[in-house]
Amino acid sequence: MSATSAALSVSRRERQILDVLFRLKEATAAEIQTALPDAPSYSAVRALLRIMEDKGHVRHREDGQRYVYLPAIAAESARRSALHHVLDTFFEGSAAGAMAALIDDNATRLSREELDRLQALIDQARRKA
């Protein structure tokens, strides 16, 4: 597992909770539960939030009698971690393998602008290498 993946080790359900928090910016446990697919019990959501807080992924503020949860990590950090996890799990860490799979499957759906953007990123990476 890469260093980035290890830095943000989250389960599938924890990723779903982070997605809800990134989308809503902040939410109570009840609001998170409502937004989750195939939602677990309220107490399970609270337990997951405690675990995620211990890991440093979320934080809370008190609003009267309730806790309001917020992401403690940047969305970009979570995206990069998830991407590294996918690369490590399905592509043996190969970004080229993942890109080839994406392009092979989506070649007819990529716009000229998207292809130009990909080419520019490749060119930029070549100059840095």
CATH-scheme architecture of the largest domain: Orthogonal Bundle
The helix-strand sequence is HHHHEEHHH
CATH 4th-level superfamily of the largest domain: Winged helix-like DNA-binding domain superfamily/Winged helix DNA-binding domain
CATH class of the largest domain: Mainly Alpha
Tell me roughly what share of residues is in helical segments: 55-70%
Classify the fold: give the CATH topology of the largest domain: Arc Repressor Mutant, subunit A
Describe the structure.
The protein has 129 residues and is mainly alpha-helical. It has two domains: 3-71, Winged helix-like DNA-binding domain superfamily/Winged helix DNA-binding domain (Arc Repressor Mutant, subunit A), CATH 1.10.10.10; 94-129, no CATH class. The protein has seven helices and two strands, in the order H-H-H-H-E-E-H-H-H. The protein has helices at residues 3-7, 12-24, 29-35, 42-55, 75-90, 95-106, 112-128; strands spanning 58-63, 66-71. The protein has a two-stranded antiparallel sheet with strand order 1-2. Helix 3 packs across helix 4. The longest helix is centred in the last third of the chain and has 17 residues, at 112-128. The protein starts with a helix and ends with a helix. The model is unreliable at 1-6 (pLDDT under 50).
